[in-house]
Amino acid sequence: MFKVVNWMLVSRSQLLIDLLDCRWPQEFLVKLTPAQPGNMANKLAEEVISVVYFDLSTIDIQQAYQLQRLIEREYSSIHTVFINFPKQLDTRFLIHPSTTLGVFYADTSLTEISLGLNDIMKGRSVMPQELLHSMMNDDNEVEGDQLTIREREVLHALLSGSTNLDIANQLFVSESTIKTHLYRAFRKIGVSCRGQAIAWAQTHMHEVRV
User: Is the separation of the CB atoms in 191 and 197 below 8 Å?
Assistant: First the structure.
């Protein structure tokens, strides 16, 4: 008996949901469950899902990070794929080697995505080559989960109650760069939000002070 594979699409775009719901179930012989970022957790608890697709054109990056962390923490058998992945922002911290199967940029056509999903269904991961190279360079620069000097500076600044913009002005970088440092630090210290990071830093500040 054929086993139906269950996919979930997390998006705020009803147009995209309707488009893919007409296409993917027939093309890949799957059941597609739509979800909003706010009800994804409840739907995951109710249904057996194998892959979650995040539409990053409609989901805030911070919320996407928290949802990805939820899957890593509570649903180890579920994999993730990111569509409409932004090129102009450094959001590599969303990608986790044990759960992320695919990344498709915003300018990727539906036909190209379909070809990539066929590879994913065959057990392969699909990511842009330049993204893979940049991630490998990051791995070479920083071993394991060691915090970089800049990540330590940002964590230290959190304790003073500084906003991301405040920290950006202090370090003479953009606010989006600060967000990138924060989320990378979050992953390394095992937290998923600003409050948890502050609590961690209060306990471990002697380890991160520069």
Answer: yes
What is the identity of the amino acid at 75?
Y
| Torsion-angle region of 125 (φ positive above 0: left; ψ -120 to 50: alpha; else: beta) | beta
Write the pLDDT tens digit of every residue in 38-52: 999 999 999 999 999
| Residue in this structure with the two tokens 């044990």, named with its chain if needed | 98
CB environment 52-81: b (16+ within 10 A), e (fewer) = bbbbbebbebeebbbbbbbbbeebeebbbb
Do 28 and 4 contact (CB within 8 A), yes or no? no
Interatomic CA distance for residues 47 and 123, integer angstroms: 22
Residue 199: how many other CB atoms lie within 10 Å: 12
Span 80-93, pLDDT tens digits: 999 999 887 778 77
Helices (H), the chain: 14-28, 40-46, 61-74, 110-121, 129-141, 149-158, 164-171, 175-189, 194-208
Interatomic CA distance for residues 24 and 162, integer angstroms: 45
Predicted model pTM: 0.72
CA distance 168 to 163: 9
User: Is the Cβ–Cβ distance between 149 and 171 less than 8 Å?
Assistant: no
SS3 assignment for 176-189: HHHHHHHHHHHHHH
pLDDT in tens, 192-209: 888 888 888 888 765 433
